[in-house]
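Fill in residues.
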C-alpha cells in the first residue's frame, strides 16, 4: 500500500509518500480500506517533533472506511462494515489496522467524508461541552477559533445546550462561518481587543467558561475574560505552548479553574466512545450538527494539507483521500 511516512521531524516537506507493507490485523483488530482521513493539529505537532513519536512513523489518527479483514476474537464489527475511528495511529495510509473496540459504525445517511470529519473534532467538542465543562442553559461561554474544525462544532454543541456563545475569529469571512455555526457574537480579534470586547458584551461581568485551543497568545487574556470561579478549558496550542503558570494567578483573578483535557481520557472504553459518537451522528442526521469540510487533498499531497492547516486559513475540516 501507499502511506505517508516521517523519517525525521521538521516542516511539511518531511512527509514522504512511500510504498510500505500492508498491515495485517492481529487478535482483537480489524483492517480498514480507508476512504477519508482527517487532518488535525496534533498531526502537525507529531510531524514537527513538538509531540515526539519513535521514528519513522506514519502520522494521522482519524479516518473512516470499510472493513476488509478481521483478526481473531473480533465481535464488535465484521467485514464490509462502514466504520470510523479517532485517536489511533498510522491513519495517513491506504489501509489501517485498528483495535475493534475503537471502531464506530457509520449510520446510513452519513457520508464517509463527514464521518471522518466528525470523529476527532466532534468527539472533542462533545466531551468539552458536556463533560469537562457541562454547559448549562443560560450560561455565556467564549470559544476561540470559532470558525475552525473543533470551534464550529463546539459552538453548535454549546448552542444545543442552551448557551450564549461568543466566538473569536480573524477575518470577516470566518465571522460569517462562525455565525452560520451559531455564535451569538463574532469577535474579530484582528480588529478589536477580544478581552475588552468580551467585557463589553457581558456588561463587564465576563463569561462562565472559555474554550481555548490557541494557547500561548490567548491564555492570559482568556483568564481575564472569566467571571469569578469561571473555568478556562485549555485544549490546544495552535499558537504555541503556554509558559509555566504560578497557581496563585488563579486565586488573584477570581478563584478560577483551569483544566487541560485530552480526548483519550474521555473515550476510555467502548461504551463512552459509542455514546458520544451516537449523539454526534444523531445530531448530524437531525440537522442540529453540521460538518463543514473546507478542503480535500489527495493523500500524496499531505504536505500541502499541513501547510494549509498551519496557515490558519481553514474554515472547517481538512481531509485527505487515498
Amino acid at each position: 500500500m501507499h502511506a505517508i511516512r516521517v523519517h525525521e521531524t521538521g516542516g511539511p516537506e518531511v512527509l514522504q509518500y512511500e510504498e510500505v507493507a500492508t498491515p495485517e490485523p492481529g487478535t482483537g483488530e480489524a483492517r480498514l480500506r480507508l476512504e477519508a482521513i482527517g487532518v488535525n493539529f496534533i498531526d502537525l505537532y507529531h510531524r514537527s517533533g513538538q509531540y515526539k513519536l519513535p521514528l519513522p512513523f506514519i502520522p494521522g489518527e482519524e479516518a473512516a472506511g470499510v472493513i476488509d479483514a478481521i483478526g481473531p476474537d473480533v465481535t464488535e464489527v465484521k467485514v464490509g462494515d462502514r466504520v470510523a475511528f479517532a485517536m489511533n495511529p498510522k491513519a495517513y495510509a491506504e489501509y489501517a489496522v485498528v483495535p475493534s473496540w475503537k471502531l464506530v459504525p457509520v449510520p446510513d445517511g452519513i457520508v464517509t467524508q463527514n464521518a471522518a470529519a466528525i470523529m476527532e473534532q466532534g468527539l472533542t467538542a462533545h466531551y468539552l461541552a458536556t463533560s469537562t465543562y457541562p454547559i448549562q442553559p443560560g450560561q455565556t461561554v467564549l470559544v476561540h477559533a470559532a470558525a475552525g474544525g473543533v470551534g464550529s462544532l463546539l459552538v453548535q454543541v454549546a448552542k444545543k445546550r442552551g448557551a450564549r456563545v461568543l466566538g473569536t475569529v480573524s477575518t470577516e469571512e470566518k465571522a460569517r462561518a462562525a455565525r452560520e455555526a451559531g455564535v451569538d457574537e463574532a469577535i474579530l480579534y484582528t480588529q478589536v481587543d477580544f478581552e475588552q470586547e468580551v467585557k463589553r458584551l457581558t456588561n463587564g461581568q465576563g463569561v462562565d467558561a472559555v474554550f481555548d485551543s490557541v494557547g500561548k497568545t490567548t491564555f492570559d487574556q482568556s483568564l481575564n475574560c472569566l467571571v469569578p470561579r469561571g473555568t478556562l478549558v485549555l485544549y490546544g496550542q495552535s499558537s504555541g505552548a503556554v509558559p509555566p503558570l504560578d497557581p496563585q494567578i488563579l486565586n488573584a483573578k477570581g478563584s478560577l479553574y483551569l483544566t487541560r483535557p485530552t480526548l483519550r481520557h474521555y473515550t476510555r472504553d467502548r461504551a463512552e466512545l459509542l455514546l458520544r459518537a451516537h449523539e454526534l451522528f444523531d445530531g448530524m442526521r437531525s440537522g442540529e450538527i453540521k460538518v463543514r469540510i473546507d478542503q480535500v487533498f489527495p493523500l500524496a499531497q499531505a504536505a500541502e494539507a499541513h501547510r494549509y492547516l498551519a496557515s490558519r486559513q481553514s474554515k472547517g475540516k481538512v481531509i485527505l483521500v487515498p
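The chain has nine helices and 15 strands.
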